[in-house]
Amino acid sequence: MRLVSKDKLQELQKRPSTIRNICIMAHVDHGKTTLADSLVASNGIISPRLAGKLRYMDSRKDEQERGITMKSSSIALFHSLGESKEFLINLIDSPGHVDFSSEVSTAVRLCDGAVVLVDVVEGVCPQTKVSMKQAWEENIKMVLVLNKMDRLIVEMKLTPLDAFIHLTQIMEQVNAVMGELFASSILGKTESAEEAEKKNKGATSNVYDWSSGLEDVDDSNLYFSPDQGNVIFASAVDGWGFEVKHFAKLFSKKINVEESLLEKTLWGDYYFNSKTKQITKGAQIKARKPLFVQLILESLWSLYDTVIIRKEKDKIPKIAENLGIKLSTRDLRHTDCKVQLQAVFSQWLPLATALLDIVCERFPSPLDLSDEKVDKLFCVPSTSFDNLPEETKSLQNAFKKCSNDDEAPAIVFISKMFPVDRKNLPINKQRPLTAEEIAQRRELARQRHAEKLLSLSAKVPDESAETSQLVMQEGQEDIKHEPEVVADDDAFIAFARVFSGNLKSGQQLYVLGPKHDPCKALEKFKDGKEVDPSLTLKDLKSGQHITLATVNELFLLMGRELEALEEAPAGNIIGIGGLEEHVLKSATLSSSIGCPSFRESHSSLVGDMPIFRVAVEPCHPSEMTALVRGLRLLNQADAAVQVLVQETGEHVLATAGEVHLQRCLQDLRERYAKIEINASKPIVPFRETIVLPPKVDMVNEVIQEQNTSVKKAKEDSSDDGGLITITTPNKRSILKIRAVPLPEPVTDILLSNGDIIKAMDKYHDRQKKVEEEVRSKMDKLTLESDPHNAPYTPTSSLPEEMLTAVEDLKMKLKKEFCNAGKSWEGAENNIWSFGPKRCGPNILLNKIQNAPNLSFWSENEAPKEILDPKCEQLFNYNSSFVNGFQLATLAGPLCEEPMMGVCFVVEDWAVLELTEDETGESGATSMPYGPFSGQIMSGVKEACRKAFQAQPQRLMAAMYSCTIQVNAEVLGKLYAVLGRRHGRILAGDITEGSATFSVTAVLPVVESFAFASEIRKQTSGLAISPQLLFSHWEVVDIDPFWVPSTQEEYLHFGDKADADNRARKYVDDVRRRKGLPVERKIVEHAEKQRTLSKNK
Ligand SMILES: Nc1nc2c(ncn2[C@@H]2O[C@H](COP(=O)(O)OP(=O)(O)OP(=O)(O)O)[C@@H](O)[C@H]2O)c(=O)[nH]1
Ligand SMILES: [Mg+2]
To answer: Which of 124-133, 633-642, 865-874 has the lowest mean pLDDT?
Structure first.
């Protein structure tokens, strides 16, 4: 029975100062949902007996079956502090599995506080760190819950003192993470501040300030410590939790020490000196029991010992009396000792009270958003705050005020869209019947029954068969009706937080897409133009991000249930229905178009890159439209899914990992498309690269001769160093290209700075267009003037921030090129282009003598005086050349996968004078080879591919990293599984105080299918399912074309080298999938066939 009515909650919704929006975050299986159960039970929504077993927030069937949470969901709870202070708590339970980390970011976005859970046995795990980082980046406060304390007693059988030491270690681990976060953010800030200062000063001073800025910052409130009141010790499954404050109160009278003193000393190296009756420091040195052990842990241990381990039931009433609690006779008689334990704890140390007290006391209300957070949310990427339009600035003030007046501007952020079965919407749900109605119905039913009986007895038996048929028919009709209900069965509800204003149903608001920019929008609509209210998402053209929508349905989120609301005041987390047509995944709603669009916080997420792809198709080709519709819905419902249609027409589903993929496919089959679907084998991306010629062969012998693959390519037009010379078919252009592997750090820099390069490239493009426009206008004005000498000034220079970013990137590249050796020195100035897609990790390097300024960095400069007519030609064909390079890097020769870490050095390029005929501009009739620019493009592409093939080629595989907790007994088996899958173990340490090892390893993504289940099988479940996180690209160090060539290799592998070549296998698999020719010997032992053919 619910203890708090909807009306009460609605009343509380109107008082922002007593609202708390919080989320629970942790590594997978650390007990978030179990903890949420306790809180939900405290409101009477579920029975306290079921708390911890029901996992109420896991509403999906597969969540219950698998035992992991897959989505974040919210519930509104009531809590009162003391008698008078009443609070509304919007609690979000988030998933811990790495595949669903995007769901965590949608949760954090809406919250002001985070409860971080740590399993005291497993300690800080990778996702713990990730969630803490997310909370830190969103500037929200954290409280730590050390969960599963019962495992220390029952499973690990530690003594109270050992447990205390273990707990201090866990606290250290958690605080180390906090320290790291703090240091990195402070260093980041001081760095940018220093740069700004340097600029202001004009970099005149040569004195460098070596202090990092860390020394001056106060970090005393940063760390978790029980005496600060931000740590709770708990066992969610047994429903208990406490902070040290609770025990300080309890014991201050008993041992006659002031409560405040006890609060500060209960945790730490203090002990109670029974002689002096004082608390003294130095428990460890004097080998005394710390207070925490003596006063707290020992009582817990003895309770567990009596009830669970020794099962001394008769002692329970005594214990209850000592603790001052009353147990019902039902609990006392219960045969399950766990139930008895929970009954004791639920009164002695109720978890919900402990946690919700802290939440209400420590977390800020929506009125106290930190300035930093407001600034961050309001920041528009390309503009600093001062340059924002007035309208936006005034909105920011409203945002800070969080006013729920009807006049206040409405600002709502939608962080995700989630599907709800229409049948479960409040409108479609049956409302509970009143007593009168029930009586009425009963009467009606009775009458019907009586009539039926009468008619049956009056009729002959064969007629009764007829009636039963009739009944059948009626039944069938019912079934026929059903699919109609199912046809549009899912409604998408927006998961949203109202930041300002009072949202009412029927209100009309602007829906601002994620790419909306208030500056541009205000400019566009300044002359009184209005947004067309009939526009929906699918009508929007590129560059348009605003639609107008009416908010029709507002919901109170209650975990599995939704309840209709008439209004939603500022500060609340709510659901909004009826926005399917307007919001794809996330959006901002506002009453003004001057409101910036709150950005997704995906960039900083690990594991968010959808690396796991499959192609899907319907089993029956006629159901294609259902599939497409289903994919569209899935895309809307899940922030981490990408749906792509490839050039081949395949529909590709990109997901975060195997578990996520399975969930998506299941959703697609059962919910969105409702058809049978075939999914291909997972498509794993590869990269192609080249390496320096290896010094040793496959059996670790030093190689004397040249590498085999080089020999093969030499038949083509290359010299010793792999320099390729290509002439275009019309013999007018000659180019010489060599491929060299890029130094690894340079590739890394390019990978991590792709966005800067892309932004700069886009900027170039735009500049070029402007330039051309200006020039064409000028041409019209002064027909005689030489276009190249036209006085043209660039319209605007690079934006300030981009300029520094680009300078920074250039400096980094310079440093790494310098480190890479003499041959690379100064290479950063000769970069012509990056590829593929103009921002990838490959470089086109310009080493042409007397070349015009064919450089990536200076493209934005106005046309220079070109001295040499020969060079002018080159300048004209610049883009063809670059495009050829882009094509080559997009699909390498091994298996048409993108290249990575390759540098193409253009050593020479000449274009001979062309007659007008040959340029192709005068009509292509006289041209046997097509337009010249096309010839150059394909020439460059071919040259790049050949140059690539002239070097030792390698495949690069995407790698997952994972940490696996495994019992020492089965460690060997785990290593065997990893070995079979070509994984590499990075570290394997025993976890202090337990028999578990924590193994960190990397594993190729392509070898990772069903990894978790294999590990579970092999280790009889003694290893905890690993979390696979994309980590990096790694060269598979085997030549895909390797054949034995040295004596030793023949000895070792035999002349056929039957042993599988892993790289070759990957290459062939990809080629087969893409329909490319695969070289394969079909006939292995052909002796017999040969004799046969001789006879012919
Ligand atoms: N011994 C013990 N087990 C616990 C405790 N809390 C949770 N568990 C168990 O841990 C398992 C996982 O609990 P969940 O609450 O589903 O964990 P979660 O953090 O929500 O997991 P995800 O949502 O999948 O990340 C369940 O089997 C719980 O019974 C605890 O305090 N003590
Ligand atoms: Mg969960």
So the answer is: 865-874
Whether the per-residue pLDDT at 1065 is higher than 70: the answer is yes
Q: How far is the CA of 147 from the centre of ligand 1 (A)?
A: 9
Atom of ligand 1 nearest to the CA of 53: 29
Pocket test for ligand 1, best of 24, 25, 33, 34 (most atoms within 8 A of CB): 34
Residue 100 CA, ligand 2 centroid: distance in Å:
11
Instruction: Please report which confidence band the pLDDT of residue 172 belongs to, taking 50, 70 and 90 as the band edges.
Output: very high
- CA gap 806, 831 in Å, rounded: 13
Does residue 711 carry a pLDDT above 50? no
Distance 1051 CA to ligand 2 centre (A): 56
| Residue 897, both tokens | 């996968």
More confident residue, 736 or 781: 736
Model confidence over 1024-1056: pLDDT tens digits?
Answer: 667 777 888 888 888 888 777 777 777 777 666
Provide CB contacts within 8 A for 387, sequence distance 6+. Answer: 519
What ligand has the least distance to the C-alpha of 131? 1
Q: What's the rounded Cα separation, in Å, for the pair 266 and 271?
A: 9
Q: Whose CA is nearest to atom 11 of ligand 1?
A: 29
Region 270-293 average pLDDT:
87
Ligand 1 pocket test: which of 237, 342, 351, 659 has the largest number of ligand atoms within 8 Å of its C-beta? 237
Q: Tell me, using a 6 A CB cutoff, whether residue 51 lines ligand 1.
A: no
At residue 68, the pLDDT reads 87
> What is the spatial distance between Cα 331 and Cα 348, in angstroms, rounded to a whole number?
15
Point out the ligand nearest to the CA of residue 120: 1
Beta bridge partners of 651: 616, 645
C-alpha to C-alpha distance for 555 and 577, rounded to whole angstroms? 8
- Confidence check: pLDDT of 461 > 70: no
Which H or E element spans position 279?
Answer: strand 278-281
Residue among 612, 615, 611, 613 nearest 651 (CA): 615
The answer to whether the CB of 842 falls within 8 A of the CB of 742 is: yes
The reply to whether omega before 596 is within 30° of 0 (cis) is no
The encoded tokens of residue 343 equal: 């009954």
Say how many C-beta atoms besides its own lie within 10 A of residue 505's C-beta: 17
Of 925, 941, 832, give the one whose Cα is nearest residue 884.
Answer: 941
Q: How confident is the model at residue 464 (pLDDT cuts 50, 70, 90)?
A: very low
d(CA 748, CA 827): 16
CA atoms within 13 A on the CB side of 78: 18
Contacts of 312-320 spanning 24+ positions with Cβ under 8 A:
313/337, 313/340, 316/340, 316/344, 319/344, 320/344
CA 189 from chain centre, in angstroms, equals: 25
Alpha carbon 957 to its chain's center: 21
Residue of higher predicted confidence among 721 and 815: 815
Work out the percent of the chain whose per-residue pLDDT is above 70: 80
Ligand 1 closest atom vs CA 94: 23
| Contacts by 1059-1063, CB closer than 8 A, 24 or more apart | 1062/982, 1062/1036, 1062/1038, 1063/954, 1063/955, 1063/1036, 1063/1038, 1063/1039
Ion ligand 2: residues, Cβ under 5 Å? 32-33, 69
Q: For residue 1083, name the pLDDT band (cuts at 50, 70, 90).
A: low
Query: Measured in angstroms, how far is the CA atom of residue 671 from the centroid of ligand 1?
Result: 28
Ligand 1 close to Cβ of residue 1027 (< 6 A): no
CA of 31 to the centre of ligand 1 (A): 3
pTM of this structure: 0.73
- As a whole number of angstroms, the distance between CA 545 and CA 597 comes to 10
pLDDT at 222 over 50: yes
Query: How many CB atoms lie under 10 A from the CB of residue 113?
Result: 20
